[in-house]
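Technical annex, item 7. During the second reporting period the consortium partners agreed on a shared format for inverse folding records so that results from different sites could be compared directly. Each record opens with the tokenized structure and is followed by the designed sequence. A conforming record, contributed by the partner at site C, is shown below for reference.
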């Protein structure tokens, strides 16, 4: 199998799998228990928190475990609204966010928030002039992702922080860094964010675990009430296998980041070059300097979904957009970029990890070439018959 859908999820690293199994088999204690088995579990949670904190340039007290990117986004966005809605009702996000953010904003609108959705340019990068215009004294939250999951577009978070600073805005900045973690410079300082969401299964960790960075001194209401775990912020007995796996994944991504990026970029570049030289009428979507983990291509005159199924038959996994939207109609990201119907219909997303090789990319290009030619032949035969 050639797995090129790493933005949807990644294969867990063998050391992550080992860490998860160990907590199920041996270290199964409850971190709240006072005997040695419990203390060992508590130590494990502490060590995992330290690894996640290190990867984000944060301190361990600023990291809270969640069930993944979706919960981190919900906790951050709804938490800011609940705690600050008396200070202001304007909340701002972008048109290309993941549904985990966009649906929260939809919910906020129903709660009476004054929601502004910022447009993006033709490459999927947020319009900073629109942000300047939208920013009012009663803005309490700006939420912008770090890397777009469909195009790899990297958002200008530093400039956004500067805009907030120049406007002397008291708005909090939340960043959904689910796709940037381990790939781009993803830390509390470089992002300048007050809240950062990350997820385990996008970085070779387990599913159902993630973390939220909450800047020191910032107090959000608890998302879960109960036994007071996670300093009272997120109650519930800790997901020990998930936490152990996330800690290991974070440790590995910090240690291997540069090496992984070189391999990811090599795979992306080879595929891009192969498509450019071998396949006519293939258009790349997103900016030239996109994060190397994602390559979005439109094969004009073809249907991305048909390409997906044909590649699947040859053992190649790709997608036509985000995993969450793959069953819905069209891509809200490509639509927001103003792309034509033909370009949206023919779009395929390839997303890479360090395990992908350049040899694999050559095979993918040959399969793509065959499929694209077959679809175009079929289409012109239908056209001829229709005439
Ligand atoms: C940008 C982004 N945010 C949030 C999520 C949701 O993360 P999770 O699957 O961990 O809930 C995803 C998952 O695809 C994502 O790509």
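Designed sequence (site C submission):
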């Amino acid at each position: 199998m050639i797995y090129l859908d790493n933005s949807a999820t990644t294969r867990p690293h063998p050391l992550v799998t080992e860490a998860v199994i160990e907590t199920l088999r041996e270290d199964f204690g409850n971190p709240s228990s006072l005997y040695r088995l419990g203390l060992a579990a508590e130590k494990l949670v502490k060590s995992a928190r330290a690894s996640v904190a290190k990867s984000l340039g944060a301190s361990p007290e600023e990291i809270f475990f969640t069930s993944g990117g979706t919960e981190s986004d919900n906790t951050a966005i709804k938490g800011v609204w609940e705690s600050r809605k008396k200070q202001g009702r304007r909340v701002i996000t972008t048109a290309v966010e993941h549904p985990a953010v966009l649906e929260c904003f939809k919910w906020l609108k129903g709660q009476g928030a004054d929601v502004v959705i910022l447009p993006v340019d033709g490459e999927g990068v947020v319009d900073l002039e629109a942000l300047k215009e939208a920013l009012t004294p009663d803005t309490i939250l700006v939420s912008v992702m770090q890397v777009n999951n469909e195009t790899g577009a990297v958002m200008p978070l530093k400039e956004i922080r500067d805009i907030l600073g120049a406007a002397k805005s008291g708005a909090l900045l939340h960043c959904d860094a689910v796709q940037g973690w381990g790939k781009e410079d993803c830390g509390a300082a470089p992002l300048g964010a007050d809240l950062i969401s990350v997820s385990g299964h996008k970085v070779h960790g387990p599913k159902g675990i993630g973390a939220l960075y909450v800047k020191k001194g910032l107090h959000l209401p608890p998302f879960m009430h109960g036994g007071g775990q996670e300093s009272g912020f997120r109650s519930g007995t800790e997901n020990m296998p998930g936490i152990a796996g996330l800690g290991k994944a974070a440790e590995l991504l910090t240690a291997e980041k540069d090496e992984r990026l070189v391999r990811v970029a090599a795979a992306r570049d080879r595929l891009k070059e192969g498509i450019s030289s071998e396949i006519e009428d293939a258009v790349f979507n997103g900016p030239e300097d996109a994060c190397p983990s994602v390559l979005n291509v439109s094969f004009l005159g073809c249907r991305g979904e048909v390409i997906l199924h044909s590649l699947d038959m040859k053992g190649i996994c790709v997608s036509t957009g985000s995993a969450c939207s793959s069953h819905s109609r069209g891509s809200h990201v490509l639509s927001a970029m103003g792309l034509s119907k033909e370009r949206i219909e023919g779009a395929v997303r390839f997303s890479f990890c360090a395990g992908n090789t350049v040899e694999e990319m050559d095979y993918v290009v040959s399969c793509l070439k065959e499929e694209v030619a077959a679809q175009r032949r079929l289409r012109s035969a239908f056209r001829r018959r229709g005439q």
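The longest strand covers residues 294-299. Residues 68-70, 73, 98, 100, 145, 149, 176, 178-179, 199, 201, 210, 322-323 surround pyridoxal-5'-phosphate (CB under 6 Å). All partners now use this format for quarterly exchanges.
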